[in-house]
Specification:
Distance between the termini: 34 Å
Structural class: mainly alpha
């Protein structure tokens, strides 16, 4: 098992089984049975168990004990352990800091900006909050009600307001140091978060600026009145700002998160936002929110251990070699690979965890830097996740609007998702004209 295995396309069968089960059941739940958030009612851990069972039934020449060893080697990688610990620390941070600061940022900027800039403000707030919190879905949950209020009081189009929030949320999800996607992309490719951030920023910033300009052009043509106001407590932003600064300057991610947790705890206690008992409960809740992601990470790693040994990765590499030539072709192959995984799973973190080990083989084969690969994995997963109508981001946004009495459909919002579309253009230009 130590020598390089021969290419074997059948070794990819477990991945195909997972995708068929997950995507197929998701479509049935969402569009046939009309179950709300249908894709997210599918037990992803169970579908991965089915995939692992298929892998165990394959390759009769390898004993079950040897297959357990292959799975253990996949899970036992140092990067997997690092990823899990960062997930847990990030969960503690989100639990301690809470999410009330998002509204504070939104209302602060809405209060000081002209009414005509309200939608631009929504986009910028979503960018900042998602980058600080590390979650696009959490940001959309918090900012969409404000977007509905802006649309109702100012006269701006609700789909435009919601699309701006979704787009801005994907910007932060893509760049945040504590985002699941950043953690997964960096650890699977073996690069520093600061290096990935700098490379990623060069892709994301032009798309964000162009999105702001497009929103501004549309906004200036609109006939608007006043915008809503709310409570402002900017003291709650300090933990997020500390985490952002620490990540950008290149501090160890564990140290950065520890500083953020301590700052959040001190501020929450000093301002009376929470008691010590509340903080411990919040930490536990934050960690609990990471358990499924951690389980998926472990199961994908175990599955990939067998697929790699059976020759599945070599088969994928052979296909990539035939279709994509040179370093630029390899980069495009990584982007399309994670994009297809995201379309199938409707979860950008899972897509990266699944595509990451294969992308690592590609960069070793093509001589692509780890920071570029991590950036492309994260960016392309966010592009597709931000656009698909059955992704959690879109479903949460439109369901929040419906709850507030302002029903819209995903297809009302999709044409106005300027940022994901422009991010795709920026990514392709980065591949085509970036330095080798």
């Amino acid at each position: 098992m130590n020598q390089k295995p021969k290419a074997n396309a059948w070794a990819l069968l477990p991945i195909a089984v997972f995708l068929v089960l997950y995507l197929g059941l998701g479509i049935v739940f969402e569009y046939v049975l009309k179950v709300g958030m249908g894709f997210y009612n599918i037990p992803i851990v169970v579908t991965f168990l089915a995939a692992i069972l298929v892998a165990c039934l394959q390759n009769r020449s390898v004993s079950f004990d040897e297959k357990l060893e292959l799975m253990a080697k996949g899970v036992g990688d140092k990067n997997i352990m690092t990823m899990i610990l960062i997930f847990l620390a990030a969960g503690c941070f989100v639990g301690v800091t809470g999410r009330s600061s998002a509204e504070a940022v939104a209302y602060f900027l809405l209060n000081i900006a002209p009414a005509k800039l309200a939608v631009v403000v929504l986009f910028i707030v979503a960018c900042f909050v998602s980058m600080a919190m590390g979650t696009s879905v959490g940001t959309i949950t918090l900012i969409t009600p404000i977007a509905v209020a802006v649309a109702n009081t100012s006269g701006f189009s609700l789909p435009l307001c919601v699309a701006s929030v979704v787009g801005g949320s994907m910007f932060g999800d893509n760049l945040s140091f504590i985002s699941d996607t950043t953690i997964a992309a960096c650890t699977t490719q073996g690069c520093e978060m600061k290096d990935k951030f700098r490379t990623n920023f060069a892709i994301a910033l032009p798309a964000a600026i162009a999105s702001c300009l497009l929103i501004l052009v549309i906004s200036l043509r609109a006939d608007v009145s006043v915008v809503p106001t709310g409570d402002i407590n900017l003291l709650l932003l300090i933990p997020y700002v500390l985490v952002l600064i620490g990540g950008i300057v290149g501090m160890n991610v564990f140290v950065v998160l520890l500083i953020g947790i301590l700052a959040g705890a001190v501020i929450s206690l000093a301002t009376g936002q929470a008691t010590a008992t509340d903080l411990l409960g919040a930490m536990g809740a934050g960690v609990d929110g990471m358990f499924e992601t951690i389980m998926v990470t472990l199961m994908v790693s175990a599955l990939c251990g067998m697929i790699r040994a059976y020759g599945g990765f070599e088969a994928l590499l052979s296909a990539i070699r035939r279709v994509f030539k040179g370093r630029k072709g390899g980069q495009l192959g990584i982007g399309l690979l994670v994009g297809l995984m995201d379309i199938a799973t409707a979860n950008n973190t899972v897509a990266i965890v699944m595509a990451g080990p294969i992308a690592k083989e590609v960069i070793d084969e093509y001589g692509i830097s780890a920071k570029k690969s991590a950036s492309l994995l994260d960016t392309f997963s966010c592009i597709f996740q931000g656009i698909i109508p059955y992704g959690a981001q879109m479903l949460v946004a439109i369901s929040t609007c419906a709850t507030l009495g302002s029903a819209i459909s995903a297809f009302d919002v999709m044409p106005l998702l300027f940022y994901p579309f422009l991010l795709c253009v920026s990514s392709l230009l980065f591949i085509a004209f970036g330095k080798e």
